[in-house]
């Protein structure tokens, strides 16, 4: 292994010290080095794909196909995009130079922050680890990854693959639980990237504030889904069922509750039931295509929600396997826990509406969600919903697909987070945009900037400001 620090042992302070030393060598800033390391990361994941899907199955009960489609596929796409464009994005960007700065040139350098901490969640433990660290690598940073202890098999595999193949001063995995997080957050970082719940996000933000460390917080919330009367019922129903119940509903941008126009409500619910049977069979608990809830604590929490409304489809569960059927629910009070807490599981409350303004008021009376979904053939209906509400992102006539584009940022707003990433937005997130103004060294200069001041200069300055600004 081409390494300066073959191992990092001891407490988290030694990890941070090793990465600071490595960053000062400027090796991580070299664009060819960045691309080489991204290619190595891609190759490692590809070579160990079977081990990865096995670890994800042990942690989440996922079918290998689901892991391939919702984690490995996006990881490959992210890495290829970064490999293809890192050199281009790393070049200085020349911008217009104002009249008052001539003769001269103006450019913006994308400068790495330095030492980055990435704290990843358990629900997509590969994707939400690799995607941010790859963005940080592309921008020229050194990275410490802290995977979630609640997905122990994936965490251990990431530790094995990364720590045995990358210089520890450049890219390193630190495993552990709450105590490890506390130790890491006590250190001074140049950037912190966190994906997880809102309450933990507040703790991360407070810890970062002590050192004025910039952060990206990818959090969550209750993402609304609205179905207009003017829709393709079967298509919309199938897309919502997939978006809600993939990964057992443990997705931060899954539809959290559904409003259906009263004119199509009964027909739409029937179509959703058909879609559930189509995807998971008549006995979903026996389906090989359904995963499980991550742990006992989350499973017990979700089971309490089953009493919050009238179940019209699903509702069965398996205590031994920690699995809950895809469940549709009506008549849940707005102040019930299933409607005041992020569900993060396979339960979908459904409500009817007659006027879109009702839904808009309902959404706006609550914290801003990470995502929102509107199904309608009417462009005016879709536009009305989008311009009258606020959310991290929106998909029209589908669910969750906006996250898969490398050309658009993914991130939250308000309680659902801050900052965004994916594609070039990942590169920009982990880059400080450094302004550089070059002035010509010859004596040609603007005399108006210098004293002594006079009425004549005042008049000329006023004329120039009006004329050229």
Description:
This protein has helices at residues 12-24, 31-47, 49-60, 64-90, 127-138, 152-163, 178-186, 198-209, 233-245, 265-280, 296-305, 337-340, 356-364, 379-388, 424-429, 455-468; strands at residues 93-95, 104-112, 115-119, 142-146, 171-173, 191-195, 215-218, 223-227, 255-261, 310-313, 317-318, 323-324, 327-330, 347-353, 371-375, 393-396, 410-411, 417-418, 420-421, 431-439. With 469 residues, the chain is of the alpha/beta class. It has two domains: 12-219 and 420-432, Aldehyde Dehydrogenase, Chain A, domain 1 (3-Layer(aba) Sandwich); 223-411, Aldehyde Dehydrogenase, Chain A, domain 2, CATH 3.40.309.10. The strands form five sheets. The protein has a seven-stranded mixed sheet, sandwiched between helices. It has a six-stranded mixed sheet with strand order 5-4-3-6-7-18, with helices on both faces. Strands 1-2-20 form a three-stranded antiparallel sheet. α2 (31-47) packs antiparallel against α4, α3 (49-60) crosses α4 (64-90) and α9 crosses α10. It starts with 11 loop residues before the first helix and ends with a helix. The relative contact order is 0.13.
């Amino acid at each position: 292994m081409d390494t300066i620090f073959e191992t990092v042992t001891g407490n988290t302070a030694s990890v941070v010290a090793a990465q600071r030393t490595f960053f000062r060598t400027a090796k991580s800033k070299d664009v060819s080095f960045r691309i080489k390391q991204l290619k190595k990361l891609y190759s490692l994941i590809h070579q160990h794909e079977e081990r990865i899907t096995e670890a994800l199955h042990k942690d989440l009960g996922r079918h290998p196909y689901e892991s391939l489609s919702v984690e490995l596929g996006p990881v490959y796409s992210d890495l290829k995009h970064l490999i293809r464009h890192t050199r281009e994005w790393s070049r200085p960007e020349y911008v217009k130079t104002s009249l008052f700065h001539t003769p001269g040139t103006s450019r913006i350098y994308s400068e790495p922050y330095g030492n980055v901490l990435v704290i990843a969640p358990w629900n997509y433990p590969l994707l939400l680890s690799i995607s941010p660290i790859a963005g940080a690598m592309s921008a020229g940073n050194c990275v410490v990854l802290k995977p979630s202890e609640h997905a122990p098999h994936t965490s251990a595999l990431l530790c094995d693959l990364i720590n045995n193949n990358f210089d520890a001063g450049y890219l390193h995995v630190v495993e552990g639980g709450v105590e490890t997080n506390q130790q890491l957050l006590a250190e001074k970082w140049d950037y912190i990237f966190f994906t997880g719940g809102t309450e933990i996000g507040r703790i991360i933000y407070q810890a970062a504030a002590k050192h004025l460390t910039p952060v990206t917080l990818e959090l969550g919330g209750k993402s609304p889904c609205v179905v207009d009367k003017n829709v393709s019922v079967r298509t919309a129903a199938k897309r919502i069922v997939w978006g809600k119940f993939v990964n057992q509903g443990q997705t931060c941008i899954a539809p959290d509750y559904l409003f259906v126009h009263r004119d199509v409500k009964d027909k739409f619910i029937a179509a959703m039931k058909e879609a559930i049977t189509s995807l998971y069979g008549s006995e979903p608990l026996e389906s090989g295509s359904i995963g499980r809830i991550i742990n006992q604590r989350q499973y017990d929490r979700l089971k309490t929600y089953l009493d919050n409304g009238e179940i019209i489809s699903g509702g069965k569960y398996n205590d031994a396997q920690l699995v809950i059927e895809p469940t549709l629910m009506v008549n849940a009070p707005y102040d019930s826990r299933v409607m005041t807490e992020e569900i993060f599981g396979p339960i979908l409350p459904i409500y009817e509406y007659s006027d879109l303004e009702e839904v808009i008021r309902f959404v706006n009376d609550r914290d801003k969600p990470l995502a929102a979904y509107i199904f309608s053939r009417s462009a005016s209906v879709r536009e009305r919903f989008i311009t009258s509400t606020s959310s991290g992102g929106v998909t029209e006539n589908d669910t969750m697909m906006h996250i898969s584009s490398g050309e658009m940022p993914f991130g939250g707003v308000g309680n659902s987070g801050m900052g965004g990433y994916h594609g070039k937005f990942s590169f920009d997130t982990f880059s400080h945009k450094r302004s550089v103004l070059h002035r010509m060294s010859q004596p040609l200069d603007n005399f108006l900037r210098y004293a002594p001041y006079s009425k004549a200069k005042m008049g000329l300055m006023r004329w120039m400001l009006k004329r050229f600004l």
